Amino acid sequence: MSMLHKQATAYQNTGNYSSTMYADPHSLITQMFDGALGRLAQAKGAMTRGDAKQKGETISKAIRIIGGLEGCLDHEQGGELSQNLASLYEYMNLTLAQANIQNDVGKLEEVSKLLLEIKSAWVQIPAQLNQASA
C-alpha cells in the first residue's frame, strides 16, 4: 500500500468519503487541504459558540489531515522544500493544539492562512507542468 493511499484512507476516516477513491494524487492532496481548511472553519464556529466538544473534534480532524499531508512528503526527492514543509506542518499542529487548549481563534486563523498559502502554490503545479512540457 503506497504512502499516498494510506494518507487517503486516513483522510477518508475524517469523514470525507466523496471523490477520494478516484482522485489522482494531486487532486487528493488538494482535497486534503480543503478538508483541513473546512475543519478549521468548523472549529472556529464551534469555538465562537462555546461548543467545546465540536471544537475539539474538528481541531483533531484538522490535525490528522495535516499529519496526512506531512506523511505524503517525499523527503528523497523534495530535499530542503519537503523538510521545510514538514517543519511547517509540525508547527501548524502544535499551534492547533494550543488553539484548542487556549480557545484562541487567532491561532486557528494563523494555521488557515498558512494552509491557504501552501494550497495556492500546490494548485498551480499542474499548470506549470503542462507549460513546461509544451
Topology:
Layout: H1 3-12, H2 25-49, H3 52-71, H4 75-102, H5 105-123, H6 125-133
User: What fraction of the residues are assigned to beta strands by DSSP?
Assistant: under 5%
CATH architecture: Up-down Bundle
Q: What top-tier CATH class fits best?
A: Mainly Alpha
Remind me, CATH topology? Answer: Four Helix Bundle (Hemerythrin (Met), subunit A)
Count helical runs. 6
Question: What is the domain tally?
Answer: 1
Shape: elongated
Concise structural overview:
With 134 residues, this protein is mostly helical. Helix content is 83%, strand content 0%.
Care to describe what's here?
The protein is an all-alpha fold. 83% of the residues lie in helices and 0% in strands. It contains six helices and no strands. Helix 1 packs antiparallel against helix 3 (52-71). It is elongated, with a radius of gyration of 15 Å. The protein starts with a helix and ends with a helix.
